[in-house]
């Protein structure tokens, strides 16, 4: 008994003994069958939960703040990328539309030249319009082909719609075209066009040598017999005189009047060519001109 008191008088051993007894008691209590938590466990869990709530809420707010900043940066970056993509799309769309229009126009030019080859033995050399002189007295255009490609003065220039003019000056790389809208019977340097109505059994001949600026029409004069001629008849060059090749489209008849002295008749002809917004034109080469 004395030894036991001496042993208990050692504080360290006493504390260890009490801790061991409590540990065994807790182990036995927790390992045993139970349906609910004990009050110490509840106390500990509530304490831990309360501490977690205190620290978690501000920590979550701070983390959410930095996450929102990161999201804003990502959103700004995505907006910049979308703006660049939209700019590229707009540019590519405009380029695609331009290419599509050019392909359609060139296909139309090709169909026209193929159709003309079936009618006449002419060579149609395509040329691009590089400049336009809008002087109402002397309207001219400049093409990007010249003497190097065999172009000569006096050759007819035609669009897909109709006759445009005649080559007036030629250099090595360009050609100047005098438009039909400058035709004036009072001008000694203006060449008239011998014309006829296409597809008529009884041929009708006349001369176009005047363009009326006010009405935008040609005056077909020197018609001896107007009976075969009617409104909407297609007027083409007859080839007489050798200035313009045969079959060049001039326009359609609007009406027919008695001439100035009552001996001949005059027809008003609406031009087939628009004389505006040209991209490509054709220089007409006759077989005789190619052999020279």
User: Quaternary state, please?
Assistant: single chain
Going by helix content, strand content and strand pairing, the class is alpha+beta
How many angstroms does the end-to-end distance come to? Answer: 149 Å
Strand order of the largest sheet: 1-2-5-4-3-12
Portion of residues in beta strands equals: 25-35%
Shape assignment: rod-shaped
Stretches where pLDDT falls below 50 for ≥5 residues?
A: none
Number of separate strands: 12
Main sheet, how many strands, which sense, barrel? 6 strands, antiparallel, barrel
Please provide the ordered H/E string of secondary-structure elements: HHHEEEEEEEEEEEEH
Helix content: 25-40%
Gyration radius, in Å: 49 Å
Family: Belongs to the MreC family.
Pfam families: MreC (PF04085)
InterPro entries: Cell/Rod_1 (IPR042177), Cell/Rod_MreC_2 (IPR042175), MreC (IPR007221), MreC_beta-barrel_core (IPR055342)
Function: Involved in formation and maintenance of cell shape.
Task: Please give a structural write-up.
This protein is of the alpha+beta class and 292 residues long. It has four helices and twelve strands, in the order αααββββββββββββα. A hairpin with a 7-residue loop joins strand 6 and strand 7. One of its GO terms (cellular component) is plasma membrane. Involved in formation and maintenance of cell shape. This is Cell shape-determining protein MreC.
């Amino acid at each position: 008994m004395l030894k036991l008191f001496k042993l208990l008088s050692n504080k360290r051993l006493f504390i260890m003994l009490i801790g061991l007894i409590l540990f065994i008691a807790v182990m036995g209590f927790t390992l045993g069958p139970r349906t609910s938590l004990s009050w110490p466990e509840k106390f500990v869990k509530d304490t831990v939960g309360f501490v977690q709530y205190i620290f978690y809420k501000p920590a979550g707010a701070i983390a959410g703040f930095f996450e929102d900043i990161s999201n804003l940066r990502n959103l700004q970056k995505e907006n910049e990328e979308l703006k660049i993509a939209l700019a590229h799309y707009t540019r590519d769309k405009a380029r695609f539309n331009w290419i599509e229009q050019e392909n359609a126009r060139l296909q139309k030019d090709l169909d026209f030249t193929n159709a003309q080859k079936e009618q006449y033995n002419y060579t149609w050399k395509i040329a691009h319009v590089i400049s336009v002189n809008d002087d109402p007295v002397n309207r001219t255009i400049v093409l990007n082909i010249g003497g190097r490609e065999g172009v000569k003065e006096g050759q007819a220039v035609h669009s897909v719609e109709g006759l445009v003019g005649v080559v007036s000056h030629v250099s090595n790389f360009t050609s100047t075209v005098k438009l039909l809208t400058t035709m004036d019977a009072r001008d000694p340097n203006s060449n008239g066009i011998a014309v006829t109505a296409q597809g008529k059994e009884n041929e009708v001949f006349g001369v176009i040598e005047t363009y009326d600026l006010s009405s935008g029409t040609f005056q077909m004069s020197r018609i001896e017999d107007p009976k075969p001629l009617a409104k909407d008849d297609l007027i083409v060059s007859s080839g007489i005189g050798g200035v313009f090749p045969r079959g060049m489209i001039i326009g359609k008849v609007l009406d027919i009047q008695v001439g100035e002295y009552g001996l001949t008749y005059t027809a008003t002809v609406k031009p087939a060519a628009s004389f505006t917004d040209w991209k490509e034109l054709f220089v007409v080469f006759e077989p005789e001109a190619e052999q020279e």
